[in-house]
Structure formats: structure tokens, C-alpha cells
Amino acid sequence: MMFKKTLSAVVLIVLAVSLFANGNKETATKGSEDSGKNVTIEVISVQPEYMEQEKQVWDLYMEENPNVTIKITSVNEDQETAFMARLAANEGPAIMDRTIPQPDKSNYKVYANLLDIDYPYWDQLTGNPKGIFEKYTGIKGYVPSVNVLQTFPYSFLFYKDEMAKAGLDPSTIRTWKDVDNFLAKLKVYVDKTEGLEYVLDTGWEPWVWGLCLPNIVSLSLGADSKDMLDLYTGKIAWTELDKNPMVPFFKKMKEYYQKGYLPKNWWGREWENEFEAGFINKKSIFTLHGPWIWDKTLAADPSAKLAGVPLPATKDGKLPEYPRGTEGAGILSQWEDTPEYPEIVKAFIWYNSPKVAEMRAQYVGAPPSFKTVSKDFSLKSPQFMNVIKPAIEGAFGSGLSWDNSPWAVNIVAPHKIDGKPDVLMDNALAEPLGKYYSGSMSLADLMKILEQRWQDAYDF
What we know:
460 residues, alpha/beta, 3-stranded antiparallel beta sheet, 17 helices, 9 strands, globular
């Protein structure tokens, strides 16, 4: 794995001074003096890509708390099964910077109730963080996680200098017709250019292709949020092809596959080792991704000329992004009755404080979720600077705004039957999706599968 040291030593010094100088009490923790008892706290990184930066932030905590050793580890997509076995064996880490699994009504007690730890910043956060778990599960009086950073978009990403060689400018994309025309021209260039293999590069990842893209692209293609909710509540059947608001997404992606824009058998390609590595090594020069690939690419080649453009806006000028959900940072409940727990809680509160959130925002690439930030705070992450901020400022059209409203699948979560797989987010769907995209399964038959999965998954 390659890492980008986004926070230079100079930046860290500046942030550390901002955080601790002048007797800053906002992030001071109770009993910050050495307690005399040495404690090692394992923390799961929010993403493997950001481990090095997280270590630098935690170093500041260890300087203030010399009795504490913070051990940073990570969980990549291909390591989640082994990690779940750790949890089942009650051998998990203490703090999760990213809750794996995402808390739901069947597993939430894996995490400690954050309402019990005297977290002092609830009222300073946006988005009703105390109520979001209840909203999505119907469970009252329990908060398994908190997210002190805002959400992120998926956007088109490309090598600006390589596009100039092709005589193309993806930054002018505003509609899906623009996307269609651009991809047709890009394919002509890819087919005649040695070293280029893919037009719109991708690979299989169930969270991406089962949650993020079906929702974001469907809304971008014109799906109405009410129709999406009607689909997930059963008012519209998945098999009603003329009404199902996700049908245009499946049709569009199959159209792109049949035209040779997507990699052959992309549902069998590994997300990181094949797709992401291929883009980093310029087997493709255009893709659709979240913020992480920017950092990975720049880690491999700091001189890479990356640029991006949002997906086309909805009919009301919204740019769909990932919704605020139940994921975030949490503490595993297995540690609650241990001697280490007070130190774990103290470290957790420090790490999820306003000033530290500003530090973390720099490498994660998402603004803090606190209602106010420092006067001198600014975010310089690549996706933010190249896509998010320009969109807010009107670079891709006037009157656009980012929208992280809950998706239908979030809203109906309280009706999800424990232990049943999601309708779309499941590795088991790679095979039928592959049959659909390759032409050996009809759209109608695919939707019959999804309708049955919906009936099995929900109880209304």
C-alpha cells in the first residue's frame, strides 16, 4: 500500500501550535497528566491510505500523555473477513476510526454507547449526531459512533495533461449527454494509444457498486427521491421496469459496458490491486471514484496532473454525495469493564474534538462537522480543491449545491430484517450482475432477483 504524507512536518507543527498553544482548553482532556499506568491502545485507521498521517496526529496525543502508546492498524477491503473473526473472538481493537461493521440494529452493541462517556461536543456538531442512529434503526438511547467529518462525493477523475494530448476536456461535462459524447471520443483515443487499456476504469467492490453508485448515479440521471423511497418501501416493485427509478442506472452502465467503455468482466476485477493500481499506472486516464484515489495516485506520483468534475446535477441543481449515516468512530464495548477503559475514553474524546477534527480533515479531505471552525482553517485536499470547492463557487454551473440527504435505503433501515443481506450491497450479486452486463441475463430477470432480495430483506 502506498501512502501520501499530506501533512508535512511544517503543517503539523502549525496545527500542533494551534491545538495546544496559549492554554487551549477546547481539546484538553481530563487528567491529561501522566496517570502512571502504561497503556497501549490499538486504533483502527479510517483508511489504510491515511495511516501515516494518523500516526502523526496521535504522536501529539502521546506527547501529552507519555503513559499511553497508540498502536495504529488498518483494515483493507480484502482483510475484513479476518477482522470480523477478531471481533467474534473478542480480540478487537479499542478505538475504531471507521466502524467495521457499520452499526445497525443487529450489531450495534459491539460498540460502546457514546452517550455514556461524557463526550462534551455533541451540541457543537451539525446533523443531529445523537439522533441519527435512532432515525435509521428505531433504537432509542444508544449512539454507537460519531462522525466529526462531513461526507464525500463520487466524481469523475482524470489526468489533465493526458486529456490535453487527446484533445479532450472532461471539465466541460454538465449533462449525461455530455458524458456519452465524451466517452465515445475518449474510446477512439484509447483504442489508438499504446499503453491505454480502459475508457472508464472500474472494478468490483460491493459497497461501491451496491450502495454508492446505484444511488448517486440514479439521482444524477434524474431519479426522484420519492420514487427511490417508494421502491424501497414496496410501492414500486423492482420488476416494474417503467417505474423503477434505478432502472436507468442499470441501463446506462450496461450501455457503457456494451460499447466497450468499462473493462471486460469488470465485476471480476479486484478494486484495489487491479482497478486502482491500473489507474495509478495510467492504464486508464479517466474514472469515477471518491476522494481516496486522488491521494493514492499523488502518493505514487506527486507530479501527477489530476483534475475532476462532478457528476451531472439533479434537475433541482443538487450534486448527490454520500449521506450522513451510522458509520463513524466508535469504541468497542468489549473494553468497557477493563482497567484501560478510562484511558481509551480520554483518547477517543481527544481524537474527536474540534481542533483535532481540523487536523484530520486535511488528509481525509472532508470538512469538519462542527458548527464553527478556526478562523484560519482551510482545506487543501485534492478532491476538495479540484471538485467540491469549485462546484460551490459555480465553476461547473450556477446554483449548484452538494446534497448529503439520506438515501431511501437509509430511511427504511429500521425495517431491515436482522441477518438478511442487502438488496444490492452483496458480493453474491457479482455473478448475476456479470450475466446481465455481458448479455446472458435480461434486465427483467435481474430485477426479479432484486425484487426477491427486497422481499426477503424487509418487513413493513
